[in-house]
Structure formats: C-alpha cells, structure tokens
Design a protein that fits this description.
By secondary structure, this protein is of the alpha+beta class. The chain contains 18 helices and eleven strands.
Length: about 550
Amino acid sequence: MAESVGVAMEVGTGKGKGKGKPPMAQPPGPSGQAKSKAKAKSKAQGGFLPNMRKPAKIQWYSAFDMISLQAEDGHFETVAIADRLQQLASGIPDLCDTDFKAELLKLGDEAATMMVVKLIDKLCDMVKTTGSGIELQTIGDGRGNSQKVKEMPKTTDEERLERAESMKHTFGEKFQAACGQEWYACAQRWLSAHGDSAGLNEGLDALMDAWFEAFGVRGVVRGVSEEERKRKEEEQRVKNDRLREEEARRAAHWKTLASRSVEDVPWDLVKTVMWCSGGMGGALLVQIGDSEAVVVKPQGMSAVAEAIAVEVASLVGVHVAKNRVLSLAHDEFFTMSAALHAAPKMVDEHQHQVELISSGSKEFVALLEYVPGVVLQGSEAQVALRGDDVGTILEGLGKIIALDCLLNNVDRVPAIWHNDGNLSNVMIVAGFNVVGIDQQVNAISDVGGRDRYFAALREFCGDVQQGRITAPSVARIRTAIMENCGVELTDCQCERILIGVRQTFALVANDSVAIAAALPAVDAKLTRTFGHASVDVGLSRLEHMLEFVGACVEVVAQTMS
C-alpha cells in the first residue's frame, strides 16, 4: 500500500480533493422579476418555486462524502459522523434539532461505521440496468471521446457485482478515505473485530429511514443538446489540463528536495505541507527549509506492526524508510503540531488532513524518512529497469523480498504470496539503490496457516539456494514486474533478484542467534514507545508478532544451512 514516503508515485497522482466538504447548498429561489421604475427596488427572495419540493429528509447522495471521515483503523467516529449529519440537516425543520450523536450512541459505538457501510450498500443495490432501448449521448473530456450509446443492455449478476465493487473503490479515492480504495473492506473488518453487529440492523434501518430520503431514481433525465455537450466537453478539457499542470508542478517541486534526518527536525523551518493518499491512510509531506523534507504519518492499529518491520530491517541490513514515533506525551509533538497548523498548504483542500495531525486527534504520529525517487511502477521505473545499472536495482529488490518473507509483508512483491503485490512500496533512488516503504509484520496465529506459510518459505529458500529461475515464485515476480513496469525480465535478471534474496537469507542464517537475541530489546523499545497508549496501536500483539518473526528467522536459518 503505497505511502507518501515515496513522493514520486504519490505526488504524481495530484490528489486535489479534500475531506470534510461542506453540505450541499439548497437550490436558490427564483430571481426577481423586472420591476417598473415606479416601484422601489427590493432584493429577490430566496426559497423554492411552487413546483419544487423542499426536502424533508437528508438527500442520501449528499452523505457519501462522510467516507472522508474514516479513521485509519477503518471505523468512523460517532462524533464526526454526527457533526456531518447535523450540517446536512440544517434547514430541514424535522431534523435540524435532532441529536444525531445521542441517537447513534444508543445503538452502540459501531452504529456510525455501520451506517456509512449501509449507505454504500444501498447505493450498490441500485446499480442495475432498469431497461433497454434508451439512446444516450455521453459528454467527453473535450478530446473527442464522447459517444452515443443506443441502448442500456441487460447485465448479469456478476457484472453488477463487479460494477458495485468498482464503485466502492472509486468512492474511497474520490473522498480520500483514510484506508484509500480499500476503505469499505477496512470498515467491514473493523466491524467484524468489534463483536456481532447484526443486532444493530433493525434499529439502524429505522434511523436511516427517518433521516434519509428513500433510495430510488429521482427526477427526469433531460437530454443534452449537441451545442451544450460540446460546451461542457470544452469546459472539462480546460479543467483537466489545468489540473494536470498543477499536478506536474507539485511533483516537480517535491522531486527537488532531499531527505532530512528524522532524529532532529527543526520545526520552525517548515515552509509548506502537502497530503498524499495511500492505502494505509496517507501521510503528510513536510518541506523543511529550502531543500529538505520529512514525512509525518498518523498512526493507528498497525503502528506497532510497522515499527517492528523497521527494526527487523535494521537487524538484517535491508534499507527501508527510517522512522521515529512521537506521541502526545512528547513536547515535540505540540511544537510539530503548531508548525504544521501554521504552515502554508500546497493544496487548500488538504486542511482537513493537516488538522487530523495538528489537532492531536491522533495520539501517535510517525516521522518517516522522506525518500525522493521513483516507485517501481510506470514509465520511470521502466526506464530504470532498462538502464545499465538494472542489476543493482534487482539485487536490492531481492533483499527487500527476503525481508518481506521474515515479516509476512504481503503487500509488496508477490514472491511467496498469491496476490498482485504492490510495487509502489518499492522506491528506486539516486545511485540505483532500492528502498522499501510502508511495510509491516503480519503474524499468523492459526496453526495450520503458520504451517502452510513456513512450508512456502522453505520452498522459496530452496528456489533461492538452487537458483531455480523457472520456479512459481520467480514466475510471480516476473509477472508483477511486467504488469507494473512493462518490462519482461530475462533469466539473467531473475538470477540477480535471487542473488539479492540469497545474500540476505545467508546473513539471517549466519546471524540467526544474534537476531533472536536482539528481539527482546525490540520488545522493550516499543513497549517504552507505545506503553502509555490509550488507543489500540497493536501493543497487545507485540510479543506474538516478535515470536512470529523469530520463527521465520529460524525457518530460513535451518533451510539455508
């Protein structure tokens, strides 16, 4: 899940939509009619035309931006949702005095999260074709890509399901949810982890019926004339061009900055900040002085798992973005917060995300090493992989894969994992070095699951020892590189990746006793860092996660010996 430490990938997306958008404005009343000179001038009165129905409930589609209020662990705070509902209900006589917070809390802490999920569920239920034989003229982006669609065909259940899932991902990106495109799945996981929420359904359905207009098709579809369509396309083209120029300008700016040590940050020199979205919630790019930068990331339930990953990387000599954790117990936290609050925002709409950090609503934040470079995706990565120093890059990639095997870090290069991976969590920096970002331990508790994982790890160790470039693990790596970078790796290049893995695995095998002996010190360090936490940051799972890492180290050591 790509984090903003990797600036080249994140800034390029140019997320310009902020969170916490204001409620939708109510339709204005009719303009004043022309008046005779004999009559005194008067202001046109706002209101609704006789044939316009004043809303008696909240328009359900206006509530979707509540997705932007998601917390990093996937849930939605009752207070934040209640405040948003209060905004939406202003001007609605039957609802404006409703105590939304109290009503939600009557059902439990899970009610706010389930309500947002149910809103999207209801929308997805509507995603279906209502008929055929309808001719539509689409509006393009001004580049001649509009088209006429003669009819809306019937769709299969599978197609509707796929469309609904795509819509969930789109909303996560559009409203910059803390968990990104996976916001819905994260919310569902949070609900599952917090008890049986089935009993909420009846009470929550009653509240939603009382608060929101019924889901359904509203209004009449109006045709668009050819002239109007062309005008709108031109407006969209101009807007898109402007957005692309702004994104390119921001990307170019951050690429000029160097990394600043996270150990000593002069917060009085903060010049500007910019939020970058990512799968695990996003982070804040912070420019220090004229030429340096650090990254500030709000910490949630995975804070300890992420911190362990950095510590283990140091033990086995793999370069990942360094970090330092600050909490509300540190004076520096408040110095940092004041500086971020006062700093100019490169994108005005990012004020909400900055306040998420500077307001102290997050008990912990991580100061992360800023890694300027390019992610292992797209055209820039393709150029790097076709350069003369590709061997150095691939060996570095192999070392990162070896680290991920010790962590069960599933979200990077799919060597022993049967997924698509996420190569945006690999950075290529100056000198053709490779740096890992956004990693964490994913400890397996289930005995059967652990046995299967260790069996896969042993098999991969065998692939590495024997240089089996035709093994399924190597095939998955080839596929990921091809799909993300458009480069087909040669057999020799695959061997370079296995060489990098072998170097790290050999170090683990040789130093396994020392690594195991260092893990209690990691336990003590992170207990000191997070021991006073009043929220769940994963501290209760610290011992289990370290035990899992130790077991992976032992598997590698035994197999490589």
